[in-house]
Amino acid sequence: MSTPTRIVNVGAELLASAVEDQAVPVTMVDWRPPMEGTAGDLATVAADPLRRAANERALAAMLGVQALLVDVRPASEVLGLTADRFLHAGPPIAWERASGPLRGALMGAAALEGLVEDPEDAAGLFAAGDLAMEPCHHHRAVGPMAGVVSASMWMFVLEDPQTGERTYCSLNEGLGKVLRYGAYGGEVLRRLRWMSAVLGPLLAEAVRHHGPVDVTGILTQMLQMGDEAHNRNRAGTLMLLRDLAPAMVTSGFDPRDVAEALGFIGGNDHFFLNLAMPACKLALDAARGIEGSTMVVAMARNGTDFGIQVSGTGEEWFTGPAQIADGLFLGDYGPDDANPDIGDSAITETAGIGGFAMATAPAIVRFVGGTVPDALATTRRMHEITLGENPRWSVPVLDFQGVPSGIDVTLVCRTGILPQINTGMAGRLAGVGQVGAGLVNPPAGIFPLALSALAERTRARPGWQAPVR
Amino acid sequence: MSTPTRIVNVGAELLASAVEDQAVPVTMVDWRPPMEGTAGDLATVAADPLRRAANERALAAMLGVQALLVDVRPASEVLGLTADRFLHAGPPIAWERASGPLRGALMGAAALEGLVEDPEDAAGLFAAGDLAMEPCHHHRAVGPMAGVVSASMWMFVLEDPQTGERTYCSLNEGLGKVLRYGAYGGEVLRRLRWMSAVLGPLLAEAVRHHGPVDVTGILTQMLQMGDEAHNRNRAGTLMLLRDLAPAMVTSGFDPRDVAEALGFIGGNDHFFLNLAMPACKLALDAARGIEGSTMVVAMARNGTDFGIQVSGTGEEWFTGPAQIADGLFLGDYGPDDANPDIGDSAITETAGIGGFAMATAPAIVRFVGGTVPDALATTRRMHEITLGENPRWSVPVLDFQGVPSGIDVTLVCRTGILPQINTGMAGRLAGVGQVGAGLVNPPAGIFPLALSALAERTRARPGWQAPVR
């Protein structure tokens, strides 16, 4: 038989992707039209003399970050939170527009902080503005699902040793009835109190004894072990346990507490998500604020709005309505029970993993839905809207190709291909908890919004000359 | 685009396998000639009226076994070994024909048992027949590489709860300079003494507190986490650690010993191999001794001979010269330093994992050599010589197809396709240790030998009528 050395393919994506599996180079000829109304802004941004170097710098900055777990501390200490201030996932939002799960988590957190006895009583305080709510992202933090952080919660502290920059994330509570999915019952608050009283201090002591844990390095290994680090974090969780267990044992803590903590972490396949997320944020924060860069540095949802931030447009959020995921439901729940997309966890996709790396985690289709060929095709499709590949994070089954990294607003607008996110689904009513997991995209309209802002900045720059069209 | 519903393919395996990746059914038309001289025996065995049902029974018996880790005990206790009796990998062999690594491991074990001060002094005792050597397989045990077991070593005890049948394997020492690769220096013996004094008793206590560990279930998970359970056991090792760590902590052992044991297991990605192997043996032993079955129930190598046992031919070994693996070498070692294939670990391939499941562990090509497309193609090829698939052990990237299970001597002879094994490579001189890892096949001639014995039994059966050819 003869092996083709190069194939040009139009349209028949199934076969193309199948051949690509065999590591034969495939050129996809893209026939998709650009998003409606973006032609002028695309031409402007394409002609921006800063763009190419700015994007190279942004991508290199992101890929250059190493995230180390260096400490575990209370949010009051590292984020300066007082009992009446709460962080949440996604772009800014007021109580009036907040979704059920976000409200539920805020109410539970208010009870956790002792501001109210009954979580239900907190609603009025938030509505009246007596309790403050701000995005995690505005405090170098990220939170999965509702993403609510309150003063007494213990936070993972991640640091890039080259720059000393830090990011933060709370500890993962597990699945089902948990605060981040909007549940706030007694079991939820009891678990959170145990996490603050035992788990946090024990992990802090273990990290101190062990020394920094290389979260970026664990992510490298996870991607070779069937995890995509958003909705599969099994291997990552186990590697964290492996690294910290000996130091936990010699920490001087009561062996029963140590055993309980080991069982809690080992029984929660998602525990490592809360390290993957701040590692991704640390990487992406390094790429912020580069004039001319069209790279997305955050995708985040508060359960009502989906927002993105872009390197070349500073701290501005471009938002649109959060979508409902398409996926698999727990027990008797169905699509009517699901809240729209929520959480800062899309920071993983922003950094090239999660939905972008599903090819390396085909077993995830049993959790979020879809098919194995879809999972393989998704990773390949995401390369069409990203600036490059991550040489540290590779996908063995795609012949060790690096994950698609650095979402480019112009490529999204030019192709109409939307970033693919996989996600847990919260119940839409406060107090319910998780109802499923699935696949979801950002609202398409936010990318032309960002493009327009980029184009406006380009045109406003001294010496700008409009391209001849 | 239109999606083909079924494809018939002749020869162009690259494309066929690529399409198969997309979960489109593919029919491979096999043009390979049978192995030379096997036509008559193939016709006889094909006409055996017992064969079909016997193979169904053998496959079902193998697939029906659940392997639980129920205890950890000294070999003296569970295998009745005295200090002067030693088990080894592979088919039976005398000292005179034993390879360097097997000799090295036996010498080290004699020193471990206190029979000699200097391991070198043991050679004469083995040569004189003062010390006995017998195959692990003759004692319901398996051992990786040299596979040497001596009285004071602690053994994993696996049991099928349905039948109470048990199998045994020693504890894994790690890589590099270790007894099973033929090294016997002071560091090797010190580590083995610590394993007998601390690790074995601690694991025994942990298993007692935790209760039986579901090894078959961990194997199910591993195959979704990039392990093929022969040369990648990373996820399996971590899951064992997760399951036993809490019970180790509350065992009452000194926390420093517990921490050392946790670090030892966590630092050895191959630790779980010594559970995967006896789990596979427990499954395959259930398929032994079924008259008319052409299913292979053991493949094992002693470093000189490669032997197989077949369900329908009892305890008989069919042996030929062990081959040298083709693969990757550690440091400055090269092919001249490698001993021929050694170890009972090919029991994993016999049960459908290891080399047979490389499609689920593409990252293994960085350890044993080959390419990712080869790894995918190998699993598909092994389906051509196996009786069925294992519904418990599936390969996500092949759309959750079960691993190819139950090697059929007649299919091997008819297609000439040899079982694919991946393996560590021992240095050929006693005392060296590991020199690399690679891919290897059994010597082709042993399958016609087994076929001939099967045909002979068929012809000898009362009422046999030769087929009309």
- Summed over residues and divided by their number, the pLDDT of chain A gives a mean of 93
Q: CATH homologous superfamily of the largest domain in chain A, by name? A: Enterococcus faecalis V583 domain
Distance between the termini of chain A: 49 Å
Number of strands of chain A: 17
Number of domains of chain A: 3
Quaternary structure of the protein: homodimer
Structural class of chain A: alpha+beta
Low-confidence stretches of chain A: 1-26
Q: What's the CATH topology name of the largest domain in chain A?
A: Enterococcus faecalis V583 fold
User: In angstroms, what is the radius of gyration of chain A?
Assistant: 22 Å
Using CB atoms under 8 Å apart, which protein chain pair has the greatest interface? A-B, 50 and 50 residues
- In order across it, which strands form the biggest sheet of chain A? 7-6-3-8
Helix share of residues of chain A? 25-40%
Question: What labels describe this entry?
Answer:
469 residues; 3 domains; alpha+beta; four-stranded antiparallel β-sheet; 16 helices; homodimer; v583 fold
Describe, in plain words, how this protein is organized in 3D:
The structure is a homodimer of 469-residue chains. The first copy, chain A, has 469 residues and is an alpha+beta fold. The first copy, chain A, folds into 3 domains: 1-31, no CATH class; 34-63 and 289-460, v583 domain like (v583 fold); 65-279, Enterococcus faecalis V583 domain (Enterococcus faecalis V583 fold, Alpha-Beta Complex), CATH 3.90.1710.10. Chain A is 36% helix and 19% strand. Chain A contains 16 helices and 17 strands. Chain A has helices spanning 13-21, 39-46, 51-64, 75-78, 100-112, 122-127, 186-210, 215-222, 234-249, 255-266, 273-285, 347-350, 365-368, 372-382, 409-415, 446-460; strands at 7-9, 26-28, 68-74, 85-88, 132-135, 154-159, 166-170, 213-214, 296-302, 305-310, 318-321, 326-329, 342-343, 386-395, 401-407, 421-426, 434-440. The first copy, chain A, has a 4-stranded antiparallel sheet with strand order 7-6-3-8. Chain A has a 4-stranded antiparallel sheet with strand order 11-10-9-13. In chain A, strand 14 (386-395) and strand 15 (401-407) form a beta hairpin. The N and C termini of chain A lie far apart (49 Å). At the A-B interface, helix 1, helix 9, helix 10 and helix 14 of A face helix 1, helix 9, helix 10 and helix 14 of B.
